[in-house]
Design a protein that fits this description.
The complex is a heterodimer of chains A (373) and B (531).
Chain A: H1 2-33, H2 40-48, H3 52-76, H4 85-102, H5 107-136, H6 140-158, E1 166-168, E2 171-173, E3 186-187, E4 193-194, H7 198-214, H8 216-226, H9 228-233, H10 238-255, H11 258-265, H12 276-286, H13 291-307, H14 309-312, H15 319-356
Chain B: E1 2-11, E2 19-27, E3 31-35, H1 42-49, E4 57-62, E5 65-67, H2 72-77, E6 80-83, H3 95-100, H4 104-107, H5 111-123, H6 139-152, E7 157-161, H7 169-184, E8 188-193, H8 196-202, E9 205-210, E10 213-218, H9 225-233, E11 251-261, E12 267-277, E13 281-285, H10 292-300, E14 307-312, E15 315-316, H11 322-327, E16 330-333, H12 337-341, H13 348-353, E17 363-364, E18 367-368, H14 370-383, H15 400-412, E19 418-422, H16 430-445, E20 449-453, H17 457-463, E21 466-471, E22 474-479, H18 486-493, E23 499-501, H19 516-521, H20 526-530
Parallel strand pairs in B: 3-8, 3-9, 6-7, 7-8, 13-20, 13-21, 16-19, 19-20, 22-23
Antiparallel strand pairs in B: 1-2, 1-4, 4-5, 9-10, 11-12, 11-14, 14-15, 17-18, 21-22
Classes of the chains: A mainly alpha (373), B alpha/beta (531).
């Protein structure tokens, strides 16, 4: 059976490689069309990889992308599109910042408290969409998009000075958090600090794999995603599964902002990174919902983000990186579907060939005729 | 004179069976049957003839002239017409509109087209009325519209893909009369089937396909169903053993006054009451769409009853979830295995877990036990003769019969007390069919209660200990499988008869006994098996 395993690896790698190659070629064409060198921006960006401070930036950024993408991926695994990760993580980060500024427990309790706050806020926000879906049949796509907009307004409200807001110059913040809630990073000397919660991202990735592949719940969830009707017939309660998956997705989403919040900014302000939830969608797609794939995709995205500013100093527009991200997502969708179908057909053909050659599992069956008797 | 001549057709094709060096010669004015097990390559061959697939090797000749088709349009121009197994009609259009759709250029869309339809209908005795809405038509009438559609486009060779699968016996006879009309007018018909009785009664010539290649031709007058079946499977068929009754008096599943309503309050199931005992097979006969699907859904817990109760042994299970029902010993062979029985893109061993994720050997507590599940999948693959090179291939890469054997193996592995078997051998080849019947019968001996739903009346009559007829959501009639004939059952299925069905002739009469018991009580007999 090793053949089929190798095959699976080949198929898993073929999709992203084709997508990336196509995206790079298309981006090069865009550069050519604008009368610039199609090669130099890439060399510049690759050079950036060798600088240790850029490496630290990439890892830090990737940790947040990774968590957001996991949140999206868990929805994808059961055919739910949680497009509201963006609102969920922002609201969750804000609530964690508020709690962190007002509660002051010992660090051993404070950090878990903040994490729990973020998880509950994210799950609550996505849970609204989940409840709407199972009770009223509202599409989770529509509901979560709208909840994103509402989250923005809620955040603006909470920033009011008479609610939880603290004005620092022109900036809205939630005030500085108590130090017991700060998570120390790994000091890399001049290169900066790697967020301590990068390890949370790694743990989440491991947990994601274990739950999906090694638990009954994970099997039910994957079955629901693969075939809703077959899952229902197998005994999965579809409504409960939708709600549970939405809650988990939102709970994970709530953690996406914490690495920077607890590791660096220690307050939720206007400067807090936005849009990570949307990027997470593309990253989850590129990573094929697999924890390892998503890790590579998150690092790739973070690299494009952190290496592109250098382009401005050499007469290129750093937006080429954004164009490339967009092209990657487009080619990913096309190439994955193509590779998937190709793989399925190829396997059918090979199974047919092996059966024709008499390679049937169980040696005593080999002599039997088609009749099976 | 030869209408269609296929020579040396070879098609390398993603799938289990490709066509290899196929020869088929259809004479003008004849019905030529193409028989073979499911997956033998009949459909591929017809797709090639209809221009949907291109052969890798070989030639097609129409009326002696060599042709190549690159699309069905080319085939239609050459007078090849196909009546698909699944009708392709728009319900909300009239017969006339359906017929002219896509061929408006031929006779327009008005009076001329209507005249042509009427003329064709009369000439071939099809009885098609051009101005009826298709949604008002029954299955048999729709099929005649499909045939007329093909004739309207000028077909001289008609391909009928399993045309009798959806018909009750009386309708089958009517269809065969139509086919005889067609051939009397000099048209040729290629008739695809695996029901050997029908093939022998309607065909002038028979070509048998096995494993993607032609293994021989036969003339019905000189052939018995048994010989034909042996050609199909390529080996001697086992002799049937008489199955003795294993019915006990211990009720396993009791359904009382079950009612299920559609959204608007219309009853989908009404006043369904029956009891199945340990060791008993209850067969439900009925034309599809009379409540069978809903009955199965209510029993497995996918739909909850609006009133009435379901009792398993001595526990009322009406309020139980699907999972609990399955854990407590209700096995389920679904009607549509692709929708309800398998995860097509998941490996076989994950499909072995499906539906039994909480049970041993698949799980230990909340954790999956992939090693044990894989080992057990290997056991099922061997014990149930699932033909696969391994358990890591996807379910989609197996043929339908092998998928079904996997499902049967999976359900039987959990020692069900009550088995819901909805069309357990639909789309399954002869060999696998007999194997599945054996497994059901064996479990029945050990005290399993089975609800059998099937469109195959021979299967129903042969396997069941008790027969009920469902019509319009109600159990309208019951019959004794030992005496009833498929024809009698067929007329009850149309709602024509209710109550207890009595066989017309006295069953005890000695003149009747020599042939009947064997056919009726032993579904393994070759005639039945092949159908």
């Amino acid at each position: 059976m090793k053949k089929f395993d190798k095959e699976r690896v080949l198929l898993a790698v073929a999709g992203p490689v084709i997508a990336l190659a196509v995206a790079f070629v298309l981006s090069a064409i865009v550069l050519l069309a604008s009368g610039k060198s199609p090669v130099e921006p890439y060399t510049l960006m690759f050079e950036q990889l060798s600088f240790s401070d850029i490496q630290v930036l990439i890892i830090n950024q990737a940790s947040m992308y990774y968590i957001a993408a996991l949140a999206v991926a868990i929805g994808f695994r059961m055919n739910l599109f949680n497009i509201g990760v963006d609102g969920q993580y922002q609201l969750a980060a804000m609530m964690a910042a508020v709690v962190g500024a007002h509660a002051n427990l010992p660090a051993a309790l404070q950090v878990p408290l903040l994490i729990l706050t973020a998880v509950c806020t994210g799950a609550f926000w996505s849970g609204i969409a989940g409840v709407l879906k199972v009770t009223r049949g509202v599409s989770e796509v529509v509901a979560t998009i709208m909840l994103n907009a509402i989250a923005t307004s809620v955040i603006a409200y909470l920033w009011l000075p008479n609610v939880f807001g603290v004005k620092v110059g022109n900036n809205n913040t939630t005030g500085e958090m108590h130090e017991s809630g700060w998570v120390p990073g790994i000091d890399m000397g001049d290169a900066g600090e790697i967020y301590g919660l990068v390890f949370l991202a790694v743990l989440l990735g491991i947990g994601y794999w274990v739950v999906l592949n090694r638990t009954r719940f994970g099997f039910d969830l994957r079955a629901s995603g693969a075939s809703e009707s077959a899952a229902a017939a197998s005994g999965v309660d579809p409504k409960r599964m939708v709600l549970t998956a939405m809650l988990i997705s939102g709970g994970i989403a709530g953690l996406a902002g914490l690495p920077i919040l607890l590791g660096d900014t220690h307050t939720y302000s206007l400067n807090f990174p936005t849009g990570i939830g949307f990027l997470g969608i593309g990253i989850a797609l590129l990573g094929r919902n697999s924890p390892v794939g998503i890790a590579f995709a998150a690092l790739l995205w973070a690299w494009l983000d952190k290496a592109s500013p250098e382009l401005d100093f050499h007469g290129y527009d750093k937006e080429i990186a954004v164009i490339m991200q967009g092209l990657i997502v487009l080619s990913v969708v096309v190439s994955y579907e193509a590779v998937r179908e190709w793989g399925l057909r190829r396997q059918q053909r090979r199974v047919g060939a092996e059966l024709a050659a008499g390679h049937v599992l169980g040696a005593d069956n080999n002599t039997k005729e088609v009749a099976g008797r | 004179m030869t209408a269609v001549e296929l020579a040396g057709i070879t098609k390398r094709f993603p799938g289990v069976v490709a066509n290899h060096d196929i020869h088929l010669s259809v004479r003008k004015g004849t019905v030529h049957a193409l028989v073979g097990e499911n997956g033998a390559g009949k459909s591929t061959l017809m797709k090639i003839l209809y221009g949907m697939q291109k052969p890798d090797e070989g030639t097609i000749a129409i009326d002696g002239e060599q042709v190549t088709f690159s699309s069905p349009a080319d085939a239609i121009v050459r007078g090849i017409g196909m009546v698909h197994q699944h009708f392709m009609l728009a319900d909300n259009l009239t017969v006339l509109e359906n017929v002219v759709l896509g061929s408006e250029k031929l006779y327009g869309i008005g009076a001329k087209a209507r005249r042509k339809i009427k003329e064709l209908s009369e000439r071939y005795g099809l009885g098609v009325k051009p101005d009826l809405l298709v949604e008002e038509l029954g299955v048999a009438a729709r099929q005649r519209v499909e045939i007329l559609k093909v004739l309207y486009r000028g077909a001289t060779t008609l391909i009928l893909d399993e045309p009798t699968a959806v018909l009750v016996p009386q309708e089958v006879d009517a269809l065969f009369d139509n086919l005889r009309e067609l051939k009397a007018e000099g048209l040729s018909v290629i008739f695809i089937s695996h029901k050997l009785g029908e093939v022998l009664s309607v065909a002038d010539e028979i070509t048998v396909i096995r494993r993607g290649t032609t293994v021989g031709t036969a003339v019905p007058a000189e052939t018995t169903p048994r010989q034909l079946a042996e050609m199909m499977v390529g080996s001697e068929l086992p002799t049937p053993e008489t199955a003795e009754s294993t019915v006990t008096d211990r009720p396993v599943i009791t359904v009382d006054k079950l009612r299920l309503e559609a959204a608007g309050g219309k009853a989908l199931l009404d006043d369904i009451t029956f009891t199945i005992h340990a060791g008993e097979v209850l067969g439900i006969a009925g034309v599809e769409g009379n409540g069978q699907t809903e009955l199965v859904d209510a029993l497995i817990g996918l739909k909850s009853a609006d009133s009435g109760t379901i009792t398993l042994i001595d526990e009322e299970i009406t309020g139980w979830t699907t999972r609990k029902r399955r854990e407590q010993g209700i096995g389920y062979i679904p009607e549509d295995r692709h929708r309800h029985g398998l995860l097509l893109e998941a490996p076989l061993w994950e499909n072995r877990i499906l539906g039994h994720v909480t049970e041993k050997p698949n799980a230990k507590g909340v954790w999956l036990d992939p090693k044990a599940a894989q080992a057990d999948t290997r056991r099922i693959v061997e014990a149930y003769d699932v033909r696969t090179p391994g358990i890591d291939v996807t379910a989609a890469s197996l043929s339908g019969g092998n998928q079904q054997k996997l499902i049967v193996g999976r359900e039987m592995s959990h020692k069900p007390r009550f088995l819901i078997a909805a069309h357990p051998t639909r789309g399954v080849d002869v060999g696998a069919q007999a194997a599945i019947w054996d497994h059901i019968r064996e479990a029945r001996r050990e005290g399993l209660a089975v609800l059998l739903i099937s469109a195959d009346l021979d299967e129903l009559i042969g396997l069941s200990d008790t027969l009920r007829v469902i019509y319009n959501g109600k159990l309208v009639a019951d019959a004794d499988p030992a005496t009833i004939t498929p024809e009698e059952l067929g007329s009850a299925m149309t709602g024509a008869a209710t109550g207890h069905l009595e066989h017309d002739e006295t069953p005890e009469s000695p003149a009747d006994t020599p042939e009947t018991p064997e056919i009726r009580k032993s579904p393994e007999s070759p005639e039945d098996e092949a159908r």
